[in-house]
Amino acid sequence: MSESCPIEYDIPKTQILGLRIIKLMMNAEKYLQEKIESRELPDDEKIHSHISFMKKIGVTKGLQAEPWEKFISVTGGSIFGVWIDLRLGKTFGQKLTAKIDPGMAIIIPHGVASGFQTQDPHVTYSSYTIKKNILAETNHIFIDPFDEELAINWPIPQNQAIISTEDRSYLKFSELKSKLSEK
Length: 183
Description:
Blueprint: E1 9-10, E2 20-24, H1 28-38, E3 48-54, E4 60-65, E5 68-76, E6 79-85, E7 95-100, E8 104-108, E9 112-118, E10 123-132, E11 141-142, H2 165-168, H3 173-182
């Protein structure tokens, strides 16, 4: 039984190929969850969902590029999102930032690093793996979100941000470029 998607949306293109910021007119997460539960998604599309709840302003996560596509949204509060294309090619290193709040969603293609910083207390952030494009030679890539070379204008500066020890230990962008040039 084929049914059209009841979600109304606007999907403008961004300068990063495949990255879309979507303005939703209904709860897309509820629609996606219903499709997952009803198993109307293809069997070979393994879906993973992850929901994070952050109580404080300034929680900073990322930057992580993964070998699959993701659909992310914020259902409470708002975030400052950052995306950097780490796929080899003419858009390598391109950066996009945007404030994301309820009623918006992002489709992130594999190989594009994403990170965010909470802008409100009590942020609920949802992430769904929507398409596994895993290639044997593709790995997760982690980049320091406060690397000076990336020149990300985070609303909350590093000395006031809440960031995990793990996220602080990620590669510098120059280290990633060096590793990629060795291949």
